[in-house]
Automatic annotation (TrEMBL):
GO terms of molecular function: glutathione transferase activity
Organism the protein comes from: Phytophthora nicotianae P1976
Entry's Gene Ontology BP terms: glutathione metabolic process
Keyword Signal: yes
Residue span(s) of domain GST C-terminal: 111-230
Leader peptide range in chain numbering: 1-21
Cited Pfam families: GST_C_3 (PF14497), GST_N (PF02798)
Gene3D superfamilies in UniProt: 1.20.1050.10, Glutaredoxin
Protein name (database record): Glutathione S-transferase
Alphabetical keyword list: Signal
């Protein structure tokens, strides 16, 4: 076998591998009917709203008042919102919905190591959001609320944000130039969660502050915010 034949055979084998054996990118087909149901405020559905909007996926954005929620509560899988209806089947759990939306829109990585990276960011943010919910909804005593808020801003938040600041390398997002659901989750947590606490600032975390600005200025996200955040 001469050199030219060897090169030709090698090229054929490489083509066969890539066409038939190499892992292929997953192609997600948007469902014909997608309805996200939650209350009017951001809360636990805002991340999914942001993801679907960022990915330019059409969905019905149903926003309930308290009476409307109570009317449908007995029909919901866990008696709570948000829920996502996909072609007639209803699903619950806010982060399950968010990650499905991320996969649907291409905002969830396909590389396993990149998945690990953004999921690590996501889980860190969930930990902080859980603390916020504890203070906001399950601490009626004002003195206790003040003490917990102080601890949140002085201990938990700096610890998490310092970690996330270090995850940002070349930017503008956690995976360099690829925006993922984790970037949108940072935006959601800072704008719709931490910003309600007096004294919160991203001034010590310039990379995160820039990331939030990058998310906010993404055309599809900017269009969604212009419509819903007057």
């Amino acid at each position: 076998m001469n050199q030219f034949t060897l090169v030709a055979v090698t090229a054929v084998l490489v083509a066969i591998y890539h066409n038939y054996f190499a892992p292929q990118p997953t192609v997600w087909v948007a469902p014909s009917q997608l309805k996200l149901t939650y209350f009017a405020g951001p809360g636990r559905a805002e991340l999914s709203r942001l993801i679907l909007s960022a990915g330019n996926v059409s969905f019905e954005d149903e926003r309930l008042d308290r009476d409307a929620f109570l009317a449908i509560k007995p029909t919901l899988p866990l008696g709570q919102v948000p829920v996502l209806e996909v072609d007639g089947t209803t699903y619950s759990q806010s982060m399950a919905i968010a990650r499905y939306a991320a996969k649907l829109t291409g905002l969830y990585p396909q590389d396993p190591l990149e998945c690990l990276r953004v999921d690590m960011v996501s889980e860190s943010l969930i930990d902080v959001k859980t603390l916020i919910s504890e203070i906001t909804y399950r601490t009626p005593d004002e003195a206790a609320k003040t003490e917990k808020s102080k601890k949140l801003l002085e201990e938990s938040v700096p610890k998490t944000l310092k970690l996330l600041e270090g995850f940002i390398q070349k930017g503008p997002f956690f995976l360099n130039d690829k925006m993922t659901y984790a970037d949108l989750q940072v935006y959601d947590l800072t704008k719709n969660g931490l910003s309600s606490f007096a004294g919160f600032s991203l001034s010590k975390y310039p990379k995160l502050a820039k990331l939030v600005g990058n998310v906010e200025s993404t055309p599809n996200v900017a269009a969604y915010l212009a419509k819903h955040q007057k």
